[in-house]
Amino acid sequence: MFGYFGPEGTFTHQALLTLVGDGAQARPYATVAAALAAVRAGEVEASVVPIENSVEGGVPATLDYLGAPDQDPVNIIGEVLVDVSFELAGRPGSTLADVRAIITHPHAAAQCRSWIGEHLPDAAVTERGSTAGAALEVARPDSPFDAAICAPVARELYGLVTLASDIGDLSDAVTRFVLVARPGHLPARTGHDKTTLTAYMRQDRPGALLEILQQLAVRGVNMCRIESRPTKTAMGSYCFSIDMEGHIDDARMAEALVGLRRVCQDVVFLGSYPRADDRPQSVPADGTDAEYAAANAWLAGLRP
Amino acid sequence: MFGYFGPEGTFTHQALLTLVGDGAQARPYATVAAALAAVRAGEVEASVVPIENSVEGGVPATLDYLGAPDQDPVNIIGEVLVDVSFELAGRPGSTLADVRAIITHPHAAAQCRSWIGEHLPDAAVTERGSTAGAALEVARPDSPFDAAICAPVARELYGLVTLASDIGDLSDAVTRFVLVARPGHLPARTGHDKTTLTAYMRQDRPGALLEILQQLAVRGVNMCRIESRPTKTAMGSYCFSIDMEGHIDDARMAEALVGLRRVCQDVVFLGSYPRADDRPQSVPADGTDAEYAAANAWLAGLRP
Amino acid sequence: MFGYFGPEGTFTHQALLTLVGDGAQARPYATVAAALAAVRAGEVEASVVPIENSVEGGVPATLDYLGAPDQDPVNIIGEVLVDVSFELAGRPGSTLADVRAIITHPHAAAQCRSWIGEHLPDAAVTERGSTAGAALEVARPDSPFDAAICAPVARELYGLVTLASDIGDLSDAVTRFVLVARPGHLPARTGHDKTTLTAYMRQDRPGALLEILQQLAVRGVNMCRIESRPTKTAMGSYCFSIDMEGHIDDARMAEALVGLRRVCQDVVFLGSYPRADDRPQSVPADGTDAEYAAANAWLAGLRP
Amino acid sequence: MFGYFGPEGTFTHQALLTLVGDGAQARPYATVAAALAAVRAGEVEASVVPIENSVEGGVPATLDYLGAPDQDPVNIIGEVLVDVSFELAGRPGSTLADVRAIITHPHAAAQCRSWIGEHLPDAAVTERGSTAGAALEVARPDSPFDAAICAPVARELYGLVTLASDIGDLSDAVTRFVLVARPGHLPARTGHDKTTLTAYMRQDRPGALLEILQQLAVRGVNMCRIESRPTKTAMGSYCFSIDMEGHIDDARMAEALVGLRRVCQDVVFLGSYPRADDRPQSVPADGTDAEYAAANAWLAGLRP
Question: For residue C257, which residues of chain A lie inside 8 Å, CB to CB?
Fold first, then answer.
């Protein structure tokens, strides 16, 4: 059984189908926190949640819940990128000309603002908690709303028809989703991996972020995402959610993790897993496992 | 005339009153973007918008709108910290025991979840676009909602009464608001200032963030906030919103700005302004204006 | 049997007596290179050579011979600091007023120039290969030289008398001597140790020295001496002789050595040994063995 | 009138002829210190001294004298590289087979050791203060020495004949000489320049060298030589003699000099001058004068 940030028909649902296949049993949760709490509680094997959108940025609920210290640990074991393609979906038989009242999620409304302004300048837009919930609402025969802005999967699921497709202002918006499980399921190294963690600075250590980046740089570890999040203790106190290229079983990554652990107040390890994109892994010539092995052999030979 | 992210009675409204005084004429805007667009359009002298919350983190709409390149520049000319103190407000005559239906903004609902669970476990919570809008709704005699979670200023404005005060889970949550104007109103240096900018990396320059932090470190400039934001062009492409201690008229800051401008693809300067908090300014002994002046005089003396 | 850079009566001889005791058998060699070659050849157990003087700087012959790559390795196993106190020594019965012709080593002449200028302005100074050789010359009854500038130990050895003592311009000059053996005699860690090596940069890697220093800094390893030496291949090609605080058995030093080995073209390890001075060891809080052990245990716990 | 480290016929003399032409009046001085003191005293317009040899390394006397703080400043205004080609020179009529006794400077003896061992294994080698002095000695008809190892210019000057040429073990040894004058003769920027200085660290500032290198790196200034020298105050107290690519009139160099002046206890500027070698100048794209000018113009535009 897998969990996800629902309801059915969201982009997260779509990500789940990609990550674990069509046949898997899946249970929607009303919030990101609930979907992740279900993992910690053992209700589900793993849950899918959104972590980052190429337009909106990091998803605070996910970053905060995953990175919280003093919690039972969970690990990311997979990721997938989903094109966020918005459709305007109506009840069968309706046409674009009929649309007066639209319902959707605020993010979707924001991303389709230009299209609406141009094609449906007089339509009223009402907000709902999810795009899938909006589609479900429109599917009710007596709904006051004429159309939903939603994902293709929701349109299909709730028996609506496409009135317009690909209506987002940025046609190439992408959301990244992660599959989160309890520890013990570390994916094997593929040579094309990512490692995620949340680092808490020691208080009042000026230049703490610089220090963290140097711990990575001297081991040849490349960082591919960093986001600051408030620690929620005081204004101006931050932790950092970080993605790095490489796997905990890469020598350079293992040494970098030890370095971060030493210089930080706390490090919440969130997993090593295969990357979803096809960017080439960047490993400097002096950062390969072979180089580490050679240098360690040299060190061993120096001792009697 | 000043603009702000309204409606009347929000914490932003409260921030405006603190920043520009009770007597100022103020106009609410429905979104952060609209409040800032009004500045660029010259409709208002300056606008107040939230930029950061100690629990929720940075406000994406503000960070993105302010930091967008290729726009007419705007500058932050002041900031204020407002305690985010939530109240449960009802119609006159009502009591806590009467409350079955609550309405509020999702952030406020999230921050008061524990209190509600303990004191009103059976109450239904409905979401509305702002806490002030929630208070206005409750003020309607025939409203289906019994109470709003809102700011004290909204409760007062809409003639409600306090059913419970300080009900947030984190009693010391704080939001930072900034006053934004067109360029030309740079506040004078006070010795206790902050400078804000958005830095765009050169593409495919590994270690670009490390390079930025080193540009600050070698000049003795301390960074007090950094947030990555997507550039909205592609997944994995980020810019950084940065607050630093000091004023553009401090020698170390001026030199650091030049350094950032050189190594970055673009830098959007967002102003130097007095800090609202009372943290001591941290200037290393070799980073004072006197040290810079002495070193520049030495350099001048080396030339014939 | 121990070797040293002789002849008898040099400061190096004095250092040998301090390092291995009065009773040890010792053989003088005419050059630093010969004294070290005797170690490599197995003629002696270990040799004592000067490595650094507080006035003259590093001793090139020692640095180059020890740091040469592609040689059988040798290790420093001890060090001692010797006050370089110069005396003017004459034949028994002579007095300061009799001195017209002085003989000594060029370094000694340089370091006593002010004293000679003031007290014996008309004396001629002739140079000889060592201060002990100068004392031996003066000890010959028919020597044309009236006095030698030499170490107290040479004056005593060759039966001369003190005409003036402590005549160096810098009364606190100190020379550091090292005891060098074949590998296999690594001194145990004392908690107050030094590690020495010679690092060869990869060619045409700009910022290679900066990279080396960062490898040390991120592990909390403090550098206490660095000297560049030509690699003798081309003008502008250098290697670096480096002393660091700590022992190869300190976790931070072991990791730093591996880091240097990776980023350098070659590293010639020259030993870990107790420090002769009494400066406190500087180990940052996050660089102790306990911190490394804790971080490694944490890392181990992350894997299934 | 120019001074140089003599006597006539040394490689320094040869460097002088290259730097200022054959017709210039030149006066030899017995030591490097005397040749430089003559500049400070105004006895000569400028002096030529050796600063670095590709085999022996830096010339301590030159580095220490030039870099001494609290002295009237002098500046390097030119440099030249001279191939150090050693000859075995004898009296006219003599042959290689006649050579039993050789005289030369210790450095020359060291650099020709292999050749002597192979071709004249039974010859005695005696040391003299300079190779030119050795040639002069051999030129005396009643000299006990049969041959001198010296420069071609000395052989010619003292009427000797070549018994063997190019006898150094490293056939491509090179010495770098500098022309030193009082301030006021700063050579114009050529785009292919070098800047030299001596930097004194602040005491007890761990990582001070790292800090210096970072001041250069963030401005895109490339370092081409660094040598530590004792400050002569205490064992373990060093200053650094540094050559950098670029001219004080390059924007990046001017800013780097100001940075070094701020973070160091003292900086002794020793001049900007055209480079003698033909290595390409390495200036990063963000370190050109044009980039600095553009960034400064941007900064100026930010202020009202």
Answer: 295, 299, 302
Q: Residue C204 pLDDT > 70, yes or no?
A: no
Rounded Cα–Cα distance for residues C217 and C286 (Å): 12
The burial class, CB within 10 Å (0-12 / 13-18 / 19+), for B188 is: exposed
Task: State the average pLDDT over residues C283-301.
Answer: 95
- D298 in contact with B at a CB cutoff of 8 Å? yes
A neighbours by CB contacts (3+ pairs under 8 Å): B, C
User: What's the pLDDT tens digit per position in B84-125?
Assistant: 889 999 999 999 999 999 999 877 888 898 899 899 988 888
CA-nearest residue to A261 within chain C is C295
D232 and chain C in contact, CB less than 8 A:
yes
| CA separation for the pair D32, D50 (Å, rounded) | 8
Flag whether residue D56 sits within 8 Å of chain C, measured between CB atoms. yes
CA angle B102, B107, B109 (to 5 degrees): 25
CB of C295 less than 8 A from some CB of A: yes
**CB burial of residue D206 (10 Å; 0-12, 13-18, 19+):** middle
Model confidence at A225, pLDDT cuts 50, 70, 90, reads very high
What mean pLDDT is reported for chain C? 92
Q: Which amino acid is at A158?
A: Y
Strand duo B161-165 + B147-150: pairing: unpaired
Disruptive mutation site among C182, C196, C204, C218 for chain A (greatest number of A CBs within 10 Å): C218
Q: What is the average per-residue pLDDT within B281-302?
A: 93
A230/B56 CB distance under 8 A: yes
Q: What is the pLDDT of residues B212-230, one digit of tens each?
A: 999 999 999 999 899 999 9
Reported ipTM: the value is: 0.89
Cβ–Cβ below 8 Å for C186 and A304: yes
Q: What average pLDDT does range D223-228 have in this prediction?
A: 91
Split at pLDDT 50, 70, 90, the class of A127 is confident
Give pLDDT tens digits for D113-162: 889 989 998 888 887 878 898 999 999 999 999 999 999 889 999 999 99
With an 8 Å Cβ cutoff, is A57 touching chain B? yes
pLDDT at D234: 80
Asked whether residue A205 carries a pLDDT value surpassing 80, the answer given is: no
D299 closest CA partner among B191, B255, B252, B208: B255
pLDDT in tens, B9-66: 889 999 999 999 988 899 999 889 899 999 999 999 999 999 998 888 899 889 999 9
Quick check: A283 and A193 in contact, CB under 8 A? no
Single-letter amino acid code for the residue at A207: G
Which residues in chain D are contacts of C82 at CB distance < 8 A?
none
Report the chain A residue with the minimal C-alpha distance to residue B224. A236
Q: If we measure between CA atoms, which residue out of C91, B60, C177, D121 comes closest to residue A58?
A: B60
Q: Do B302 and D248 touch (CB under 8 A)?
A: yes
Alpha helices in B21-168 (DSSP H): 32-40, 60-67, 106-111, 113-119, 131-139, 152-157
Q: How many CB atoms lie within 10 A of CB B49?
A: 27
Tokens of B166: 């300080």
pTM of the shown model? 0.90
Determine contact: B275 vs chain A, CB below 8 A.
no
Return the structure tokens found at D1.
């009138």
Q: And the tokens for C154? A: 């040479």
Q: What is the DSSP string of D99-119?
A: --EEEE-HHHHHHTHHHHHHH
Residues of chain C with Cβ-Cβ distance to A302 below 8 Å are 183, 248, 257, 269
* Distance of alpha carbon A297 from alpha carbon C261, whole angstroms: 10
Determine the average pLDDT of the residues in D37-42: 96
Neighbours of chain B (3+ CB pairs under 8 A): A, D
